[in-house]
Amino acid sequence: MDNGYDVDYTFNEAFSLIVNCRDQKGIDYFWHKLSAVPEAEICGWCKDQFGVYWQVLPANWEEVLYGGSEEQVRRVNEAFMEMKKFNLEVLEKVKLGTGSPV
What we know:
Elements (H helix, E strand, L loop, with lengths): L15 E6 L2 H11 L10 E3 L5 E6 L2 H6 L3 H12 L6 H9 L6
Parallel strand pairs: 1-3
Antiparallel strand pairs: 2-3
Helix pairs in contact: 3-4
């Protein structure tokens, strides 16, 4: 970040950019291009080589995480909290009760 003062400001979690993706292929593509700090990856967030945080999300992320019955939403969110990047296939299976969150 640049400004007219002699300070060393850097990017942090308070600022992030969002990439909305149509499908898993898009999520995988942008994640591969942007993620440079594996230890910063969590719940769809990654950090690039410049320290900028990105949220790489499916365009319908609200439906993915909050669509369905109360039990389905609970299962999906529990599974997602354990993920680094969105895995739509796993989340759909968890939602339907046919898959494991791992």
